[in-house]
Amino acid sequence: MVTIIGGGIAGTVLAGALAREGLPATVYERRPTVDAGAFLALDRRAHAALGELGIARDDLYAASCEVRALGLHDLTGYRAQPGDGRRLYSRPDLLRVLTDFAHATAAEFHYDRPVTDLDIESRTLRLASESVTPDGPIIAADGIDSLVRARLEPDRPAVYAGQVVIYGITRTPITLPTEESVLHFHRTGNARPTDVFGHLWNDETAVWFARIRCSSIPVADNGFHLVEAWAEQIHAALPAIRGLIDSLLSITDTVHVSNARDVPLTHPRPPRDDVILCGDADHAISPAAGVGARDAIEDAAALYRALVAKTSIAETMANRRRQILIERAEVAEAFRRGRF
């Protein structure tokens, strides 16, 4: 049996995919429901991995909208590149598709049952009122504040990435001077981190985000706020597009605010076959990179292949780490050169 800690994107789709192959999977999730979060864009690679895991394309398309292109506005002007199969999802809508898929299998889901501790040597999970010692691998898909990582690698905590991220979404119809169904990025420079305002609109919805360089906010302040609480900070960071920002803020009531954080992949301890990290638990990256969800989904697909084939999941994740580091270096160089 495979035990998965965390019923988010990676944990849910992995459990469903394994159960479809006749491999028992049990998920422990601390939240009582799955309807939380802001929005995200998945590219062609993420959709290919979801397809491999068994998610129907029609279900994904019905829960999302097309991103025709990526548009970059900076000091050099405006340029665009193809959307590469990207689609925009609200996180709750994506999770509902994955949850419906997984719940149609024999995978067991235990919501509102947090794992409160883990003894690494005995592989014993402490739940609220009992202890469980799984007879198969434990996969930690429990996010950036992973309890499992804290036990496996206490010297690799999440670190503040220098920005606060603000997400807004509205169903109020709006027409903007930018191209429709394009995910636009307005940024102030080529260094990382840099202040950024992004948005996409169509005839059904408008979404926007701001990444602002500032001191980290207290953990208790991460969550939903009235939009007025952050309006001036957004304007101060990106004064050149005040009119555009005002248009979107005026039809937004509340925003989700959080610290952007990374889990560094520099000098991690080698992965293990009995207890292993997946997705944000292992290599969370600031939303500035735009690939965190894809990385987690591709982790799930790689672990799925290894578990079905009965090969080493430790070697699988070691290879995933190497691939991720290579891709991040390539993206950082392209960003530095202003290519995107």
User: What portion of residues belong to β-strands?
Assistant: 25-35%
Widest β-sheet, arrangement of strands? 6-5-14-15-16-13-18-17
- What value does the Rg take, in angstroms? 20 Å
Overall structural class, as computed from helix and strand content, comes to alpha/beta
Low-pLDDT residue intervals, each spanning 5 or more residues: none
Terminal-residue CA separation:
43 Å
Per DSSP, the total helix count is: 10
Question: What's the mean pLDDT score?
Answer: 93
Question: How much helix is in the residues?
Answer: 25-40%
The coarse overall form would be globular
Following the backbone from N to C, one meets helices and strands in this order, namely: EHEEHHEEEEHEEEEEHEEEEEHHEEHHH
Largest sheet report: 8 strands, mixed
| Tally of DSSP β-strands | 19
How is the secondary structure organized here?
Elements: E1 2-5, H1 9-20, E2 25-29, E3 39-42, H2 44-53, H3 57-62, E4 65-66, E5 69-74, E6 77-82, E7 87-90, H4 91-103, E8 108-111, E9 117-119, E10 124-126, E11 131-132, E12 138-140, H5 147-152, E13 159-170, E14 182-187, E15 196-201, E16 206-213, E17 223-226, H6 231-237, H7 242-249, E18 254-262, E19 275-277, H8 280-283, H9 292-309, H10 313-336
Parallel strand pairs: 1-2, 1-12, 2-8, 5-14, 12-19
Antiparallel strand pairs: 3-7, 4-7, 5-6, 9-10, 10-11, 13-16, 13-18, 14-15, 15-16, 17-18
Helix pairs in contact: 1-4, 1-9, 2-9, 9-10
Would you kindly provide a written description of the structure presented here, covering whatever features stand out?
The chain is an alpha/beta fold and 340 residues long. Helix content is 32%, strand content 28%. The chain is built from ten helices and 19 strands. The strands form four sheets. An eight-stranded mixed beta sheet has the order 6-5-14-15-16-13-18-17, with helices on one face. The chain has a five-stranded parallel beta sheet with strand order 8-2-1-12-19. It has a three-stranded antiparallel beta sheet with strand order 3-7-4. Helix 1 packs parallel to helix 4. The longest helix has 24 residues, at 313-336. The chain starts with a strand and ends with a helix. The model has no long low-confidence stretch (mean pLDDT 93).
